[in-house]
């Protein structure tokens, strides 16, 4: 089992760093799945128990100048590692003006991801700062626990408004209530609502547009035949939504949300080489 990778391009390095910062804001600990073509960051708190889950996907070819990996076996050419993304984020913070960053899976005393940052130096020799990030290798028998979550059979799918706008609204609402209702319909309308004994606040968004899921693969079964004006809604923990919006550093080109009434809200943030899915269960 081997893994080594190298980033030389500074723009790629900064982009990778932003992605890791975003992941670190969303998960204290997560699983890094390495395959030949992609890196996955997975958080699979049981949604049934009220936990959020996350699925981040990166194409390695868009970030790394060199990338080599050998999985646990020829027929299972993958590696699964448990790590704290904050540690990786911290290591990459030292790399903002680096000439190169090398990442390698090592096992001196215990498994580590070694991040070697080559910094520019005034002399001819370069300075190298090394960070060893502890990881836990996840055995093959547990891999099935980390499969991609299936997209729920949603009632409404809608594009989100500007995330910055949404973040500002949610931050203000958080001071009033611990939970928020997200509701949307198939006419491009979405409302963010909080209700307490004392106050009721609603922010309305119009003309957001609805993704063309149905025409692509016919998977929009519960939304088909649905009244375009009728709202699907879910009440969720406002802190979990805020965490997603505050941690966002990837600047997605598309952001959308699928609502399964009273069950789950599924967010999808898409950038040309990164996709992030985030599932927040509804409160009962």
Question: Could you characterize what this model shows?
Answer:
18% of the residues lie in helices and 40% in strands. It is α+β, with helices and mostly antiparallel strands and 284 residues long. A 9-stranded antiparallel β-sheet has the order 10-6-2-3-4-18-17-16-11, covered by helices on one side. The protein has a 5-stranded antiparallel β-sheet with strand order 5-1-7-8-9. Strand 17 and strand 18 form a beta hairpin. Helix 1 runs antiparallel to helix 2. 31% of the residues are buried. Mean pLDDT is 89; it is low at 214-218.
Structure described in brief:
The protein has 284 residues and is of the alpha+beta class. The chain has helices spanning 10-26, 85-93, 163-174, 213-217, 238-246; strands at residues 2-7, 30-34, 38-44, 53-59, 66-70, 79-83, 100-107, 111-119, 127-134, 136-137, 156-159, 179-184, 190-195, 200-205, 232-237, 254-260, 264-271, 274-281.
Q: What attributes characterize this protein structure?
A:
284 residues, alpha+beta, 5 helices, 18% helix, elongated
Order of helices and strands: EHEEEEEHEEEEEHEEEHEHEEE
> Which class of secondary structure composition applies to the elements?
alpha+beta
Strand fraction equals: 35-45%
- Unreliable sequence segments: 214-218
Radius of gyration from the alpha-carbon trace, in angstroms? 21 Å
For the sheet with most strands, the description reads: 9 strands, antiparallel
How would the global form be characterised? elongated
Number of helices: 5
What is the residue-mean pLDDT, rounded to a whole number? Answer: 89
Distance between the termini: 44 Å
Tally the beta strands. Answer: 18
Output the strand order for the largest sheet: 10-6-2-3-4-18-17-16-11
Helix content: 10-25%
């Amino acid at each position: 089992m081997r893994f080594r990778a190298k980033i030389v391009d500074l723009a790629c390095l900064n982009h990778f760093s932003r992605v890791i910062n975003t992941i670190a804001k969303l998960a204290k600990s997560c699983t890094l799945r390495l395959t030949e073509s992609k890196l996955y960051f997975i958080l699979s708190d049981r949604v049934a128990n009220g936990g959020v889950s996350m699925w981040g996907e990166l194409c390695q070819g868009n970030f790394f100048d060199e990338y080599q990996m050998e999985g646990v076996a020829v027929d299972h050419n993958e590696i699964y590692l448990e790590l704290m993304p904050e540690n990786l984020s911290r290591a990459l913070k030292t790399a903002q003006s680096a000439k190169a960053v090398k990442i390698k899976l090592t096992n001196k005393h215990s498994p580590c991801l070694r991040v070697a940052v080559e910094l520019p130096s005034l002399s001819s020799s370069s300075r190298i700062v090394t960070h060893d990030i502890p990881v836990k290798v996840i055995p093959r028998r547990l891999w099935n626990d980390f499969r991609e979550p299936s997209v729920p059979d949603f009632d409404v799918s809608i594009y989100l408004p500007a995330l910055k706008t949404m973040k500002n609204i949610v931050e203000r609402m958080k001071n009033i209530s611990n939970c928020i209702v997200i509701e949307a319909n198939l006419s491009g309308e979405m409302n963010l609502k909080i209700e307490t004994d004392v106050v009721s606040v609603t922010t309305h968004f119009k003309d957001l547009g609805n993704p063309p899921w149905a025409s692509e693969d016919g998977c929009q079964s519960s939304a088909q035949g649905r009244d375009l004006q009728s709202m699907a809604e879910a009440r969720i923990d406002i802190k979990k939504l805020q965490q997603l919006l505050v941690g966002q550093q990837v600047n997605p080109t598309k952001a959308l949300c699928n609502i399964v009434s009273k069950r789950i809200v599924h967010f999808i943030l898409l950038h040309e080489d990164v996709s992030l899915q985030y599932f927040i269960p509804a409160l009962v």
